[in-house]
Design a protein that fits this description.
Elements: E1 10-11, E2 17-18, E3 42-47, H1 55-59, E4 64-69, E5 74-78, E6 105-110, H2 128-138, H3 148-184, H4 188-191, H5 198-201, H6 208-215, H7 217-238, H8 270-300, H9 309-331, H10 346-367, H11 385-409, H12 426-453, H13 471-509, H14 521-534, H15 540-565, H16 569-575, H17 580-611, H18 613-626, H19 642-660, E7 663-669, H20 671-681, H21 685-688, E8 691-696, H22 700-707, H23 709-712, H24 714-723, E9 727-730, H25 785-800
Parallel strand pairs: 3-6, 3-7, 7-8, 8-9
Antiparallel strand pairs: 1-2, 4-5, 5-6
Helix pairs in contact: 2-3, 2-12, 3-6, 3-7, 3-8, 3-11, 3-12, 7-8, 8-9, 8-10, 9-10, 11-12, 12-13, 12-15, 12-17, 13-14, 13-15, 13-17, 17-18, 19-20
Length: 816
Amino acid sequence: MYTPHPGGSTRESGGREARGSGAVTLSDNRPGAPAGAHHEPALELLVHGVGGTTPQEMLGDPRTVRVTGDGTAGIHRRTDDATAEDRPGERPAHPPSAGRAPRPIPEAYCWSNLTSGNSARALWLLLLPFMVANLAHWMRPAAPARHPAQRVYDVLVRLVALSLTVLLTAAACEVALDLVAWQCAASERCAAGKPWLRPLTGGWWSQPGRRLVLAALPPVALTALLWWLSHRTWSAYESASPPPRPPGPAHPQPGGERPALSLPGFWYGRRLVSRLRAAHTAAGLLTVATALLTAVLDHDRRPGGPVPTGWGWTAAVAVAAGWAATVLVAVRKGRTESEPDERIDRLASTVLPGAAVGVLALVAGYAAWPRPGWSSSAQLPGTGVFAWLMLLQGALAAATAVTAYVLHRATPPGSCAGRCAMGGLGGAAVALLACALGGVLTGGTAQRVADWLDKDGTPGMAGGAITGPPVLLSWQAAAIPLLLLVVLVFASGAVVHVVRERGRLTPGIVDSYEGEPREQASRSRRIAGAVARARLTDAAPTLIASVTAATLLLGGGALAGAVRTELPPGAAARAWPGPLPAAAEAAQALGSWLMGAVVLLLVAMGRRAYRDAAARRTIGILWDVGTFWPRAAHPFAPPCYAERAVPDLTWRMSTWTARTGGRLVISGHSQGSVLAAAAVWQLDPATRGRVALLTYGSPLERLYGRWFPSCFGPGPLRALAEEVDCWRNLWRRTDPIGGPVLVDGEDGGPEVDRDPLRDPLRYGRTPEYPLPEPIRGHGDYRADPAFDAERAALLDRLAARGGPSVPAQPDRGAVG
C-alpha cells in the first residue's frame, strides 16, 4: 500500500482508503524503478481550463518561451527548459534542490485566445441561438450509429437550425422592410426629424416597392456578413488537419462500435460545414426575396395592375424552387467521421448561393417596377410568417423529442446507466430553448426599434405614429415575465435546498479531519456550504426541464393570444373574459422592455467577459462547452475551438514521443481535461502506449457524460479507459464542475478515480500552518500534494512498460 500526503486520501492496493501522513511508496500495481541516470526524457503537457491563464502562471516561472504555435494557441516552456531534451543529463529540478532527481519537463498549451480576444468578439453572443441549436445535435442518445432514427434525429436538428436562420433574417426584414420602409417612411409624424429616411420619403425611391428594395440591403448585408464570418472562422480556427495515423485496433464501446471521438475525421468536417453554409446563406437571401415578393404580390393581385402577371408568377416559382433546393441541400447528408472529409460539394457550395442571389435580383426588379397610386399602410403583408415559424419550430422540437425517445430506448445496456440528462430528451429540450431564445432576440429587437422610431407615442396604440411589429412578438414579450418567475421559483428552491443540505452536512465535517485542532462551528458551516453549493450542478437537468416545460406552455399561450387579438372585438371579449386582457397588456409592456434588455445584456456581458477574466470565468462555462463541438447543425454558430486545439495536442504528443522516445503525461484541468481526453482518443495505439492521462476538476462525466451520452457516456469513457491504461482522475466534493468519471478498474487494474481530495487540506490552524487553508473548490488542484504523487505514479507505470522512471518532485510554484 502507499500512504497519503498530508491532506490527501489514497487507496490501498485492494482499493480501500488509507489515512495518515508520511512518504510516498508506490503500490504493487504501480511498479517503480530506482532513481539514477535518466536518458529518456519525460514530459508533462499541461492544458488549462475555462477562463484561461498565462504560461507564467501555469509553469510557475516569469521567464517563459513559446516553443511552437502562434499567438492564438501555442506550447510554452520555462526558458531554462527550452532545449531540455537535448540535455538529458543536465535537466535541473525546478526549483533547484540538491539530492533530487529531475522532474518531468513541464510545458503548457495555452488556448484561451481561441475563445477570447478583443471586446468586439462579444457580438458572437448575439448568435447564441445558433450555438444552442448546434449543441442539440451532439446531445443525441447513445444508440447504435446505424439505427434508422439517428438519421431522422440529425435531419430534424438541422431543420431546426435552418428555421433559426430564417427567423433571424425575418427579424431583420421586419425591422428594415416593415418598421422602417413600410410604416415609418409612409408616416409624416414618424419620418419627421429623421434625415436618414429622406431617400425613402422623396424622389424615385419613394414608391413602396422601391422603398422595400432599398430597405432589403441591410438584411442582405447581414446574411453576407454571416457567410463571411463562417468562412473566415473556418479558415482561422477549424481548418487544422489531424496528424496521419496508421490504422490500429480500438476498444469498442457496448454494441461493438468505436467511440465517435476516436474516429479520424471527427475533428475535420469541412464538407458538411461548407454545404450547410451554402444552404443557410441561400435561406437568408430567399427569406428577403420572399418578404419582398409577398408584399408586391399582395398589391398586384388586384385587377388592372401595371405589371405583367407572368413576371410575378415566374418570380414566385423561382423562389419556391430555391426553397426546395435549400432544404434538400441542408438535409441531404450528415457528417463523415470515418476519415477527414476534405472534399467540397462545389455544386452546392457555389451554385446554390449564386442561384439565390439571382432569384433575389429577379424579385427586386419585379418589386421596383413602377406602380402608380400604390401606398403603404398598417403592417407589411406577410408578417404572419412569424406565427407559422413558431408552429413549425414547435412541431420540429416535438418530432425531435419523439425521435430522441426512440433512440434512448435503443441504447445498449451500460451506455447510459441512468445518468443521461432528462432521460435522453436533453437535445430536444435544448432545441426548443434555442427557438425560444431566437424568439426573445427577435421580439426584443423589433419592439425596441419600434419604440425608438415612434418616440412620441406607443406603436399600435392610440396616438402612435406606426402600427408596430406583428402582434405575435408582443405576446411573446408577455411570456417573458412568467418565464422569469419560473426561474426565480427554482432559484429560491435551490437556496432553501443549499441551506438544508449545509445543516445536514455540518456535523460530519469535523470528523473527517481526525487528529487536527477543532475550531468554531463556522468553519464546518463554510465547508459544508461549499459542498452543498457544488451539488447544485446535479440539479441542472431539473432546471432545464422546468424551463422547457414553461417555455412550451407559454409559447402556446402567446400563439393563442396572438390569434385572439386578430379576432373581432366581440369575439375577443368572449374568448378572453374578465381581467385577463388587462393583465396580458401589463405583461406585454413589461416583457417588451425585458426582451430589449436581454439583447443589451448579452452584448454587455460579452464585452465584460472579454475584458475581465473574472467575468469570463463566470459565463465561460456555457460558452466553452457550446463552442467545443464542431458546427454540425448550424454553420453560423460561433467557431469550434476544439477543431484547432485537439489537432494541436495530437500533433504535439505524436511528434514529441516519436522524436525522443520518451514518456508523456498530458495533464488537463476542467475543460482542458476534455481537450486532453479528446486528443488522446485521436492517437494511434503505439503513441498512446507512451502517453498517460491525468485529469482533475474534470466535467467529463458530470457534465459531458450526462448531456452528450453518445460521445462521453459510460460506454465511450469505459472504452477510453481501456485504450489508455495510464489514466487517473482527481476531484473534490467542493468542486461545482469537476467530478468522478465513474470508470472502475477491471481485471484487477487500477481505478481511474482517486478518492475525493480533502478541501480544505487542513481544518484548523497548526504550528506549521498558522493561517486558515482556503477552500479551493474548482481551482488549485496542482497545489495539492496528491497531484505530484499521481503524476509520478503514472510515469512509473509508463516506465514499467518499457522505460525509466521519474520520481515525484513537488512543484510548489505551479498551480492549476
